[in-house]
Amino acid sequence: MITLYDYLPSQNAWKVRLLLNQLQLPYQQKFISIFEGEGQGEDFLRVNPTGAVPAIRLENGETIAESNAILVYLAQNTRFLPGDPVKQAQVMQWLFFEADYVQASVATLRHWVLTGKDKNRSQAMLDAKRAASNKVLGILNNTLQLHEFLSGDTYTIADIAVFSYVHLAQDAGLELDDLDHLNRWIDSVKTQPHYLNEVHPYSLDAHSYKEL
Ligand SMILES: N[C@@H](CCC(=O)N[C@@H](CS)C(=O)NCC(=O)O)C(=O)O
What we know:
7 helices, Glutaredoxin
């Protein structure tokens, strides 16, 4: 059985939980207390050299880290990742976009706001994150005007990856009301079979106020 190294409030880990659920694959969880420094311990650094969750361990002992790399592995030969090289690369395009742009903007700002770390950041830094987040949301809204899902007409791991933080952008104080295409897509992802309707608050973890 797959082992998922997990931290419940992590939406990067949620992506993996969602796909496992949509694939109906059994797995066990091992929780890593990231804000207490457990990720930086010797044992976990052997699983993921960055010390971050999520990561998975396969039955044969192989490990994979980076949420979107895990999605690619799990989605091989399923309807969540097309086999055609061009279509597959178009899915990858959004996986890289997510890791590069969404995580650095919407996800980071949300983390800061929900754990109170925004109080320790300069106004200039918060303004820059807000501007970057709004740019990301606009790009997504424009793309979703063209087709139903991010990489075309079918729901794939591109949607799973980008949706994980974007549908919670309001937690970061970001405004989605005018982004009709984005809102239509959010509703559509939520109606996919075996959608995982759970969000775990950072308040579950008394250590989440700590800096990483
Ligand atoms: N790019 C990575 C980001 C992973 C990440 O930032 N994970 C956070 C939780 S959402 C974490 O474990 N942080 C602890 C650390 O960086 O030490 C991914 O997509 O998996």
